[in-house]
């Protein structure tokens, strides 16, 4: 019997261990740097000694209204620590009543009170003004004009009307916008629906440059940057996290310079060369909170698609406690055509962008290349079939069967942290 390798997959809150044949398995994981020894001091230093531009305290005057953009519940941003760092750094200049925290939902649903308390802690929720952005509510938006490559821009009125605008987020590779964080906390995070639909139209998503770790020349990120720069960000504040979702480094300052510096660190930590394409790729969506639904799990599948052989098999372990989800248009659009190829034809032929079609477009592109099975405890076989996916109850057994069918030279690649590591064939 061949020697087996135990691999711990990021899955939900608990993780999942699989046993795979050691001699035929390549594990691709990000570098796991230790957390900062003093997270609070690391955050405060980023505010006081920014990458570019003056310190935060020099950018704010007493009495000014301050809007702070934060990630929604599908992201592992350390929001409470970052907001408390802002409050401490601006002590004596700004009071809590001067702040509005805007949850940058984009087109996602608003976060519940329970979620907000998990994100920010009871004390901040009970003492600060917090607003879920709603890009579908025209009354909550301000028209800003046209930016980038013809993008009509509407932004949250509380953001636009503030005297000081601060983005906060975390930086990781993004499957079509290059990297998260930075300017994405303005658009799509705080943008109106029409703005988001334009940024995610079929032509932009279809660009080969709209992919992992590419920003300049990426039509999505080019326009995201143009919107943030053109409408104004007074200070940007991002962190880099490790596998325990603890702060490794923090960056502050002028938006584009700050984000570029953070991206370079993330690129070193998370891009990994591999020697070949693989018959089977096992991936995750980095566990909770990122693997709450199929919509988000597309990122893990896309990371796997970078190194799977044409006609190969991708297995994605994603808990999907929030289902597809049922809100939004993702599930409906995904089930609207009988095959992935038909989905791609329909989407590319549309003159108007349908909400969530970009996620369907990306998943359909993966499915046109490889079969995708999902290990989840929250979706039925029939639900997965409507999404052109299928259930994998036992990952190790499914891998063994695929390797046997493909012969002794078949190999498997594992991305235990999913899109936290982006492999590429060197």
Automatic annotation (TrEMBL):
<dbReference type="Pfam" id="PF09861">
    <property type="entry name" value="Lar_N"/>
</dbReference>
<feature type="domain" description="LarA-like N-terminal">
    <location>
        <begin position="11"/>
        <end position="212"/>
    </location>
</feature>
<protein>
    <submittedName>
        <fullName>Nickel-dependent lactate racemase</fullName>
    </submittedName>
</protein>
<dbReference type="InterPro" id="IPR048068">
    <property type="entry name" value="LarA-like"/>
</dbReference>
<dbReference type="Pfam" id="PF21113">
    <property type="entry name" value="LarA_C"/>
</dbReference>
<feature type="domain" description="Lactate racemase C-terminal">
    <location>
        <begin position="277"/>
        <end position="418"/>
    </location>
</feature>
<dbReference type="InterPro" id="IPR043166">
    <property type="entry name" value="LarA-like_C"/>
</dbReference>
<dbReference type="InterPro" id="IPR048520">
    <property type="entry name" value="LarA_C"/>
</dbReference>
<dbReference type="InterPro" id="IPR018657">
    <property type="entry name" value="LarA-like_N"/>
</dbReference>
<dbReference type="InterPro" id="IPR047926">
    <property type="entry name" value="Ni_dep_LarA"/>
</dbReference>
């Amino acid at each position: 019997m061949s020697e087996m390798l135990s691999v711990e997959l990021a899955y939900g809150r608990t993780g999942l261990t699989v046993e795979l044949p050691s001699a035929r398995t390549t594990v691709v994981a990000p570098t796991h740097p230790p957390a900062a020894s003093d997270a609070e001091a690391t955050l405060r230093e980023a505010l006081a000694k920014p990458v570019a531009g003056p310190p935060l305290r020099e950018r704010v005057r007493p009495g000014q209204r301050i809007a702070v953009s934060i990630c929604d519940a599908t992201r592992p941003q350390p929001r409470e620590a970052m907001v408390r760092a802002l409050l401490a750094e601006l002590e004596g200049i700004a009071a809590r009543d001067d702040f509005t925290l805007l949850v940058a939902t984009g087109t996602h649903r608003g976060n519940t009170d329970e979620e907000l308390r998990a994100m920010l802690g009871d004390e901040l929720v009970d003492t600060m003004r917090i607003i879920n952005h709603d890009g579908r509510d025209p009354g909550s938006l301000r028209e800003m004009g046209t930016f980038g490559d013809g993008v009509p821009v509407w932004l949250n009125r509380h953001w636009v009307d503030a005297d000081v605008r601060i983005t906060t987020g975390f930086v990781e590779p993004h499957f079509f916008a290059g990297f998260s964080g930075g300017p994405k906390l303005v658009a799509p995070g705080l943008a109106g629906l029409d703005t988001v639909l334009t940024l995610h139209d079929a032509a932009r998503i279809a660009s080969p440059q709209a992919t992992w770790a590419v920003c300049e020349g990426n039509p999505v990120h080019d326009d995201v940057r143009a919107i943030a720069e053109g409408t104004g960000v007074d200070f940007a504040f991002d962190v880099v996290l490790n596998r325990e979702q603890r702060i490794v480094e923090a960056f502050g300052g002028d938006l584009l310079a700050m984000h570029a510096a953070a991206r370079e660190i993330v690129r070193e930590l998370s891009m990994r060369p591999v020697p070949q394409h693989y018959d089977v790729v096992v991936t995750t969506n980095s566990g909770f909170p990122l693997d709450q639904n199929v919509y988000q799990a597309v990122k893990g599948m896309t990371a796997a698609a970078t190194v799977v052989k044409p006609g190969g098999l991708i297995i994605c372990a994603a808990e999907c406690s929030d289902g597809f989800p049922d809100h939004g248009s993702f599930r409906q659009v995904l089930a609207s055509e009988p095959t992935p190829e038909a989905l791609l034809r329909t989407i590319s032929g549309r003159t108007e962008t349908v909400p969530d079609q970009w996620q369907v477009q990306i998943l359909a592109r993966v499915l046109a290349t490889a079969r995708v099975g999902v290990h989840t405890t929250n979706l039925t076989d029939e639900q997965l079939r409507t999404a052109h996916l299928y259930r994998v109850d036992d990952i190790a057994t499914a891998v063994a069967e695929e390797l046997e069918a493909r012969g002794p030279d078949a190999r498997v690649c594992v991305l235990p942290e999913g899109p936290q590591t982006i492999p590429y064939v060197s």
